[in-house]
Amino acid sequence: MAIFQINRRQGYKFLFSGLLFGFCMARIVALSMRIVWATHPGDIRVAISSQIFTAAGVILLFVTNLVFTQRIVRAYHPFFGWHAAVGVFFKVLFASIVAVLVTVITVTVQSFFTLDGATRAADRDVQLFCGTFFASMAFLPIPLVLLALAIPRRTRIDKFGQGHFRTKFALLFFTVTLLSAGAIFRCVTAYMSRPVTDPAWFQSKACYYCFNFGIEVIVVYTYALSRFDRRFHVPDGSSAPGHYSSSEYGASRSAISVAAAAAVAASAGADAGAGATEGMGRSIADLEKRVSLFTNGKRTSGWSDKSKRHSKSGGSSKSVKIVYADSPSDSDSATREADMEWMAKAMRELYGESEDE
């Protein structure tokens, strides 16, 4: 919570720091309930509360890793990752996690208040299904990230956060592996029921605390010490390809990159001969609509005004100049030129334009 508050005062919003604080509070409540349960073993309400908080807390870590996986997929394949179908896929995953969590809480509570054999058997089947589902959700980020790495990229990586991407991969794979081990252990032991009077080794207290709370402590400390709030941060309002990397030059960088595509297309049209000036006006007018895909309608006033004046005057396309109103220094010109070339190519691929169009 201290990291979240410090970042918030600096205008740096990363909600997952607060989410992990909520997870830690849930774990404190769960362990407190277990202590109370040990002193009052006949209190059913305390037993129910203990099991619910124990099962529900780790879901926050599963969701965190899935969100980080989504960001990596969008960074490696911007146009595919930001496609509506991919967004719906992840939303369905998150909604299903919530639905399954509500289901397992319901059947757990019901199993404590019924003596009917058929009902208890049905509750156990549902609990086994929920445990299997959560184990699969804990492991899912690994195949998704490996698939994103295996598919050839058509564009440059839309980088986000601080640090190398290999560090992000190592951090994500490490935490996912630990959480998957805990979830699979809980799932397998749930299928292997034993009598209370003859418990197996995997039903000992050491295994219970190591594969539940011990793994979660390691994951939380790994995230905190590695400053995951810096490594996995993306700019606020990111909603389209190019938004992740726009944090380096501010919100106008994506619009400027798109404007570079207009300069390339307009220059080619001017060299084509008759009708070049009129064609360039149409290109700029059409481009202003495209910019909204990258800036949500928040175009920089310098670029927008310059485009309108140029369109009205009908000047030569070769006089189009891209002005970086918020660029830090001239030393970044090489990087900006590379970014503009990449975005110009990406825009041509997105809208099906050829090189000589």
Describe what you observe in this structure.
With 357 residues, the protein is mainly alpha-helical. It folds into 2 domains: 2-231; 245-351, no CATH class. Helix content is 71%, strand content 0%. The chain has helices at residues 2-9, 15-39, 44-57, 59-76, 78-81, 84-112, 117-139, 141-150, 165-191, 205-225, 228-231, 253-271, 276-295, 301-313, 333-351. Helix 4 (59-76) runs antiparallel to helix 9 (165-191), helix 7 (117-139) runs antiparallel to helix 9 and helix 9 runs antiparallel to helix 10. The model is unreliable at 247-258 and 290-331 (pLDDT under 50).
Task: List key phrases describing it.
single chain, mainly alpha, 357 residues, 71% helix
Category from helices, strands and their pairing? mainly alpha
Could you tell me how far the N terminus lies from the C terminus, measured between alpha carbons in angstroms?
53 Å
Report low-confidence residues grouped into runs of 5 or more: 247-258, 290-331
- How confident overall, as mean pLDDT? 75
List the domain count as a whole number.
2
Q: What Rg do the Cα atoms give? A: 27 Å
Number of DSSP helical runs: 15
Give the % helix.
over 70%
Q: Give the CA-based shape.
A: elongated
The biggest beta sheet reads: none
Helix-strand sequence? HHHHHHHHHHHHHHH
Number of β-strand runs = 0
> Strand portion, in percent?
under 5%
